[in-house]
Write a sequence for this structure.
């Protein structure tokens, strides 16, 4: 669990650095901090929606193999010989 939390913190720090670099935001004044905070929240919303969409897509997939009962039995028989 500690490793997961560590990875989440690293992910958020890297995201923060990418936002600061891409938008050239200075945290030394209140306007820059406000801009960063709003940009960070926007980014977190996009990450959350993308994660939600990906999980939903994965849940909807048919993960079971399409194997008929007869072919399964013949495969087992071959293995037992």
């Amino acid at each position: 669990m500690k490793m997961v939390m560590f990875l989440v913190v690293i992910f958020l720090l890297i995201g923060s650095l990418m936002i600061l670099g891409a938008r050239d935001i200075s945290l030394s004044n209140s306007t820059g901090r406000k801009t960063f905070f709003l940009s960070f929240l926007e980014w977190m919303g996009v990450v959350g929606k993308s994660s939600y969409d990906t999980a939903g897509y994965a849940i909807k997939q048919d993960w079971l193999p399409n194997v008929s009962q007869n072919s399964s039995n013949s495969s087992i028989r071959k293995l037992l010989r």
Notes: The two ends are 46 Å apart (CA to CA). Residues 71 and 80 are 14 Å apart (CA to CA).
